[in-house]
Amino acid sequence: MGTASFLTRARGLLRIRNQLVRECLAELLATFVLITITLSSAAQKITFFETKGNILTSYLGGALAVMVGVYTAGGISGAHMNPAFSLAMCLIEQFPWWKFPIFVVVQTLASFVSAGAVYILYYDAIWHYSNGTLTVSGPRETASIFATYPADYISITNGFLDQVIGTGVLIVGVMGLMDTRNKPVPKGLEPVVVALLVLSIECSMGANCGCPLNPARDIGPRLFTYLAGWGPEVFRWVEGRGQDGDGR
């Protein structure tokens, strides 16, 4: 009885009553889960020389991570996890503009922290694979674990259009799933359908630039690699970064 009473008091003290704070914490957690699983899928693929993962498992991990993220915070913050989606919601007046910069900061921060968590998780594997040198290009580069890079032949213009089209397809697809005038997805399975949408985009549009589809997913981890030892090259458009041209 005493234990139950203590737990009840503890829950009361720890409960967060401010709605904005609750939404930000939910968005932080959902984005952290999304990016941690996504980057870990890439780290397992790269650092183990594709013996414990391949391009398909990397794409599948990223898609399922979206599903987990939506289930984690969909009922609290909406589980945007993506500044592009937050912007789209603002444009259709389903999300207040004043919250937009706050969510962008939270999403980017969560992505940065996720990159740090993956770096710790795969620390030994990264240094073993890279032969003790953190590089952005070459046969033993490891920067593409954290951020996406273009294939050798992609121009800046083509890369820009690639991301505009890929992200546009994602947003249109999600908006279509949310539209009550369309044929509804069975209740509770919306995150699964969104994950399948992401997987389809990755499988069809991932070759050029790695299909980030998410500014926070790219900027946060890229900033982490800059600070963690990969250097300013992570922000340059350099050819020959990926081993197999997939940009992941």
UniProtKB/TrEMBL annotation:
**Which of UniProt's keywords are assigned here?**
Cell membrane, Glycoprotein, Membrane, Repeat, Transmembrane, Transmembrane helix, Transport
Outline the subunit composition: Homotetramer; each monomer provides an independent glycerol/water pore. Could also exist in other oligomeric states.
Q: Which gene encodes it?
A: Aqp10
Question: Where is the protein localized?
Answer: Cell membrane
Membrane topology annotation? Multi-pass membrane protein
User: What does this protein do, in the record's words?
Assistant: Aquaglyceroporins form homotetrameric transmembrane channels, with each monomer independently mediating glycerol and water transport across the plasma membrane along their osmotic gradient. Could also be permeable to urea. Also participates in cell permeability to H2O2 and H2O2-mediated signaling. In skin, transports glycerol to the epidermis and stratum corneum, where it maintains hydration, elasticity, and supports lipid biosynthesis for barrier repair. In kidney, contributes to the reabsorption of water, helping the body maintain proper fluid balance.
Name the InterPro entries for this protein: Aquaporin-like (IPR023271), Aquaporin_3 (IPR023275), MIP (IPR000425), MIP/Aquaporin (IPR050363), MIP_CS (IPR022357)
* Annotated PROSITE patterns: MIP (PS00221)
Its cellular-component GO annotations read: basolateral plasma membrane
**Name the record gives this protein:** Aquaporin-3
Q: Which residues form a coiled coil?
A: none
Species per Swiss-Prot/TrEMBL record = Tichodroma muraria
Q: What family does the Swiss-Prot or TrEMBL record give for this protein?
A: Belongs to the MIP/aquaporin (TC 1.A.8) family.
Molecular function as annotated in GO: glycerol channel activity; urea transmembrane transporter activity; water channel activity
Q: Which reaction does it catalyse?
A: urea(in) = urea(out); H2O(in) = H2O(out); glycerol(in) = glycerol(out)
Instruction: Identify the main location.
Output: membrane
Mind telling me which residue stretches traverse the membrane in this protein? 20-39, 59-79, 100-122, 160-178
